[in-house]
UniProtKB/TrEMBL annotation:
<feature type="binding site">
    <location>
        <position position="59"/>
    </location>
    <ligand>
        <name>Cu cation</name>
    </ligand>
</feature>
<dbReference type="GO" id="GO:0046872">
    <property type="term" value="F:metal ion binding"/>
</dbReference>
<feature type="binding site">
    <location>
        <position position="150"/>
    </location>
    <ligand>
        <name>Cu cation</name>
    </ligand>
</feature>
<comment type="similarity">
    <text>Belongs to the SCO1/2 family.</text>
</comment>
<feature type="domain" description="Thioredoxin">
    <location>
        <begin position="21"/>
        <end position="185"/>
    </location>
</feature>
<dbReference type="InterPro" id="IPR013766">
    <property type="entry name" value="Thioredoxin_domain"/>
</dbReference>
<dbReference type="InterPro" id="IPR036249">
    <property type="entry name" value="Thioredoxin-like_sf"/>
</dbReference>
<keyword id="KW-1015">Disulfide bond</keyword>
<dbReference type="GO" id="GO:0033617">
    <property type="term" value="P:mitochondrial respiratory chain complex IV assembly"/>
</dbReference>
<feature type="disulfide bond" description="Redox-active">
    <location>
        <begin position="59"/>
        <end position="63"/>
    </location>
</feature>
<dbReference type="InterPro" id="IPR003782">
    <property type="entry name" value="SCO1/SenC"/>
</dbReference>
<dbReference type="GO" id="GO:0005743">
    <property type="term" value="C:mitochondrial inner membrane"/>
</dbReference>
<keyword id="KW-0186">Copper</keyword>
<dbReference type="Pfam" id="PF02630">
    <property type="entry name" value="SCO1-SenC"/>
</dbReference>
<protein>
    <submittedName>
        <fullName>SCO2 protein</fullName>
    </submittedName>
</protein>
<feature type="binding site">
    <location>
        <position position="63"/>
    </location>
    <ligand>
        <name>Cu cation</name>
    </ligand>
</feature>
<keyword id="KW-0479">Metal-binding</keyword>
Length: 187
């Protein structure tokens, strides 16, 4: 019975991975700059598990909450020395206001290894499109301020750079960490 159960779970995981690959999420590369000005591409993170979130530094509530959750999940995973490290990434969807200096100030409030990435409007748009992230800047108010509406998802990439899973707002840090660990175990 245990053998059959294990086989069924393997088949379900395999089918889910085929379905995820068919979505073609995150298949493309990106060329963005980190907070030190270094150009980064998806290839730079091959060999590492990656948790990737798209957001912006002027976000009043959702982005900070999601980055807190992502940071907590990474801390939970780091507490198990048998697990490989996870690289947390934050890609801005607002390159007009989120230059390297703004990103550096922002990401330091979260996980110490959280890496902020930005680029030109075209580069950011291409990176978001590779993950099918919806992005739309709202109207400017009297002060010139605006909000950016965007998809609220955290993406998991495996060491081969393949999209493995995504997590919405309803998932807790504990659930996210448990899911990532499951993907690591079945990798």
């Amino acid at each position: 019975w245990l053998y059959l159960r294990h086989q069924k779970e393997r088949q379900l995981r395999s089918r889910r991975l085929r379905q995820l690959r068919a979505l073609a999420l995150g298949q493309g590369d990106f060329q963005l700059r980190d907070t030190s000005g270094r150009t980064r591409s998806k290839a730079d993170f091959l060999g590492s598990w990656v948790l990737l979130y798209f957001g912006f530094t002027h976000c009043p509530d959702v982005c900070p909450e999601e980055l807190e959750k992502l940071s907590r999940a990474v801390e939970l995973l780091e507490s198990d020395p048998a697990l490989p490290p996870v690289q947390p990434l934050f890609v801005t969807v607002d390159p007009e206001r989120d230059d390297a200096a703004a990103l550096e100030r922002y990401v330091r409030d979260f996980h110490p290894r959280l890496l902020g990435l930005t680029g030109s409007a075209e580069q950011v748009k291409a990176a978001a499109a590779a993950f099918r992230v919806y992005v739309s800047a709202g109207p400017r108010d009297a002060d010139g301020d605006y909000v950016v509406d965007h998809s609220v998802l955290t993406f998991l990439l495996d060491p081969d750079g393949a999209f493995r899973d995504c997590y919405g707002r309803s998932r807790t840090a504990e659930e996210l960490a448990r899911s990532v660990k499951g993907h690591m175990d079945s990798y």
